[in-house]
Specification:
By secondary structure, the chain is of the alpha+beta class. The chain folds into two domains: 151 residues, Alpha-Beta Plaits, CATH 3.30.70; 168 residues, Alpha-Beta Plaits (2-Layer Sandwich). Helix content is 29%, strand content 29%. The protein is built from nine helices and 17 strands. The strands form six sheets. Strands 1, 4, 5, 8 and 9 form a five-stranded antiparallel β-sheet that branches. It has a four-stranded antiparallel β-sheet with strand order 13-16-10-17. Strands 2-3 form a two-stranded antiparallel ribbon. It starts with 24 loop residues before the first strand and ends with a strand.
């Protein structure tokens, strides 16, 4: 696929137009599980069924790639005696990318590149058989496919803790979809010449932005209902996708404009925000989704997991937004999407 400065194929560097986030490779796996007896994933404060499953998988994923973890070391980033624990093999360890990746400058955590969604578990009813979608987001995740399989087998061997009890699950089948770049997926959509799109927010979408309270007091808060903040959602997707692609390139030794990550990601964000103003939300039904308060294991601070779910239909010039809508449909959006939050299905229409 041709790369360059076409507005729908944003370059990551003005000095080298060969960089494009649309080169990011992605693969989708569907993993089928079966329980020996009906399984019920309880809903607890600050948790969801998908989060329970994804955290169990993340634990086994870390064990499959980290020798220190197998010796009983605490999770990455957990403090001991007030001091953060240093990894003895940070340069060669895949755990920092598969378990809890951080930017090269240490400025922030990125979502884990193995994204989990278990549709049947979100229905909040006992199940004996259920499928889980795994999205392997980027070069490191795809190169670590055998480690992901080890984690799945570890989950089968050790089980999942539910309400204080260990539930056994059997790995029935793994369907590994072929890897495609984000650009290849966009081209398949572009051929349809869509004029509208239906966005289905399948799980709680946690979007945080600055809100104006009484007396012109500005605060950070979550959007629970009302008008869909489409421009801000797609702008965030553009920023995160661009920044992740640059980090991901560097992690596998490819040439990468790492020093200009924020500048390039910010340019993509602003271009996506401007393009989104050419699209209208012509119909929607969004409802609050309250998840309660969760606590960070790192600093024990509480944070709300409130968001919205429902659907929205958009129409207009979708062409410059296709990369970010495609990324949204694969990786989700908002906060905690590695745990199954922010899952968005996208359907295309010609009129």
């Amino acid at each position: 696929m041709e790369r360059g400065l076409r507005p729908d194929l944003p370059a990551l560097s003005d000095s080298d137009p060969s960089y494009s986030p649309l080169d990011l490779p992605v693969a989708v796996w569907w993993v089928e599980w079966e329980g020996g007896s009906p399984l019920f994933f309880p809903v607890c404060e600050g948790k969801s069924p998908g989060k329970t499953f994804s955290r169990a998988l993340a634990t086994h994923l870390r064990l499959s790639v980290c020798e220190a973890a197998r010796r009983g070391a605490p999770p990455c980033g957990v403090k001991s005696g007030g001091q953060a624990l240093d990894c003895r093999d940070a340069a060669g360890c895949h755990a920092q990318w598969l378990y809890k990746p951080r930017a090269a400058d240490g400025a922030k955590n990125y979502p884990r590149p193995v994204l989990v969604w278990a549709p049947a578990l979100e229905e909040r009813r006992p199940v004996t058989r259920f499928a889980v979608r795994l999205v392997l987001w980027g070069r490191v995740a795809l190169g670590s496919g055998p480690r992901v399989m080890d984690a799945l087998l570890g989950l089968e061997e050790k089980g999942i803790e539910l309400a204080g009890q260990v539930a056994r699950v059997r790995l029935v089948d793994v369907k590994q979809g072929a890897a495609q770049t984000l650009g290849e997926r966009v081209e398949l959509v572009r051929e349809q010449r869509p004029m509208s799109a239906l966005l289905a927010f399948s799980t709680s979408f946690i979007h945080t932005q600055t809100l104006v309270r009484e007396g012109d007091v500005r605060d950070r808060g979550t959007i629970a209902s009302g008008q869909l903040p489409l421009a801000e959602i797609l702008a965030n997707v553009a920023y995160e996708t661009t920044a992740w692609d640059i980090e991901d390139r560097g992690a596998v030794g490819e040439a990468s404009p790492l020093m200009h990550r924020h500048t390039n990601a910010r340019q993509a964000r602003e271009a996506a925000r401007e393009a989104a103003y050419g699209v209208q939300v012509i119909a929607s039904r969004l409802e609050p989704a309250y998840g309660g308060m969760a606590r960070s294991k790192g600093n024990a601070q509480g944070y709300p997991e409130n968001g919205f779910w429902g659907w929205a239909q958009i129409s207009g010039n979708l062409q410059p937004l296709l990369p970010w809508l495609a990324a949204l449909s694969l990786a989700g959006g908002g906060q905690h999407r590695a745990d199954g939050f922010g899952v968005v299905g996208v359907g295309w229409g010609r009129d």
